[in-house]
Specification:
By secondary structure, this protein is of the alpha+beta class. The protein has 18 helices and 15 strands. Strands 1-2-3-11-8-4 form a 6-stranded mixed sheet. Bound molecules: protoporphyrin IX containing FE.
Length: 409
């Protein structure tokens, strides 16, 4: 931990010097060739740090241990989900991303509209659809014996699922992929924001068209359009906030997770053999993979002046809860960088408490079907040595490209 000469504007007086971490979080994660190992260096320090550049040049608290991240998720009274200053600085529409940027007592009304579509039973009913999509994508490259996993599978897959869930037009898929590519890799913050706005404007028109015609595009859209907040209908902003979050929530989380999982699998041939011969171990593998490859860092704000872990915090300050740090904390998971599918981990990659990921059953189902299909249809999956394999770090960490090769079965 380096407490350095920082301006008062960067480090408020109440922040203890031993908590000050004068670093660019995204750049720190990108040092070396593994962001999980890079991030793991923070486990030697305190569980709560004040990062002078947590994201996009903004200062924020970062909780760095499994136990502090867990508490950040679980204690909604101390740590509010309302939008914080850091998110405001990056993208600040007048409406909230719902249900994620809401607190009790309102949160439950937003969440209950979505819940029926994401129960284990509802997701189980989509098994054939997820399998068919996986087969179609794998069919497109299986005979080549190689593919670029991110662009040919991982990014298309969750987009196609969201398009289907929401009833968006299939022919928009390529356009969505293009916008999302710019939102992540655009040359400037303005270009990235522009892509987010393009998605928003498209979804706004999509919503308004259904309201005008009275014909919802899917059962899920019908439920959102008919959403009720206690004794009144959802406002237009509440509808937009829900639709926009639903669109983005399951995209880069899923594609980033799939990338890291497949990259590991492609280097662990003993695990490939075990899972190929024992498909009943796939759920345990997905659990361990998601423990080890957390990808997101949800936000909270300090709800009132308080002391947490002996550290004074002021109302309204921003907090990041990086699940990729929590899942690799040696205090919670011995040998955290080792993938051990017999571990049965209790991790926080999907969050915890009232905001726990509503798409958790869908995401796990998608990952399990992906693993089963790749292992059944390919032998000796490996990373192609002569091609680039790069990743990005920001609030979500994900692979940009993963060149894979395999032998025919
Ligand atoms: C591997 C994939 C995924 C990961 C790692 C992930 C992670 C998370 C996390 C950590 C949260 C908690 C956010 C917070 O507490 O502030 C969350 C919430 C949420 N996720 Fe996911 N997610 C994944 C996939 C999905 C999918 C596929 C969907 C839907 C299509 C989805 C929809 C949501 C929604 C709507 C929320 C907000 C829930 C609430 O605020 O009550 N997620 N997710």
């Amino acid at each position: 931990m380096s407490a350095t000469q920082l301006t008062a504007a960067q480090v408020p007086d109440h922040v203890p010097p031993e908590c000050v971490w004068d670093n660019d979080f995204a750049a720190f994660l990108a040092e070396g060739d593994d962001p999980y190992l890079a991030g793991g260096r923070l486990h030697d320090g305190p569980g709560v740090i004040w990062a002078t550049n947590a994201s996009h040049g903004m200062a924020s608290w970062i909780f760095t241990h499994h136990q502090t991240v867990q508490e950040g998720f679980a204690n909604a009274r101390k740590f509010s989900s309302l939008r914080g200053p850091l998110t405001e600085a990056v993208m600040n529409p007048d409406w909230m991303l719902l249900p994620v940027e809401s607190d009790a007592p309102f949160h439950k009304y937003y969440r209950q509209v979505l819940r029926p579509f994401f129960t284990p039973e509802a997701i189980g009913a989509r098994q054939a659809e997820v399998q068919a999509l996986t087969d179609r994508l794998v069919d497109s490259f299986i005979d080549r014996g190689e593919c670029e996993f991110v662009s040919e599978f991982a990014s298309i897959f969750p987009n196609a699922m969201v398009v289907s869930l929401m009833g968006l037009p299939q022919e928009m898929l390529l356009q969505f992929l293009e916008w999302e590519e710019i939102a992540i890799h655009g040359k400037s913050a303005a270009e990235q924001l522009g892509a987010g706005i393009a998605i928003h404007d498209y979804l706004r028109d999509f919503v308004e068209e259904q309201q005008r015609t009275g014909k919802p595009a899917s059962e899920l859209m019908e439920a959102i359009l008919a959403g009720q907040m206690a004794d009144r209908p959802f406002s237009q902003d509440e509808i937009m906030g829900t639709v926009y979050l639903l669109f983005i929530a399951g995209l880069d989380t899923v594609f980033s997770s799939m990338g890291w999982i497949m990259k590991h699998l492609a280097t662990d041939h003993a695990l490939q053999d075990r899972l190929r011969c024992n498909p009943q171990d796939l759920p345990a593998a997905v659990e361990e993979f998601t423990r080890a490859f957390g990808v997101s860092a949800p936000s909270r704000i300090v709800a009132e002046d308080l002391v947490f872990e002996g550290v004074p915090m002021k109302q309204g300050e921003h907090i990041l809860l990086p699940t990729y740090l929590a899942g690799r904390d040696p205090r919670a998971f011995p040998n955290p960088h080792v993938i051990d599918i017999d571990r049965r981990p209790r991790h926080v990659t999907f969050g915890l408490g009232s905001h726990v990921c509503i798409g958790i059953h869908l995401a796990k189902r998608e990952m399990q079907i992906m693993l089963e299909s790749f292992l059944r249809r390919m032998n000796h999956i490996r990373v192609a040595q002569d091609k680039p394999c790069t990743y990005h770090t920001s609030n979500t960490i994900g692979l940009d490209c993963l060149p894979l090769e395999w032998d025919p079965v």
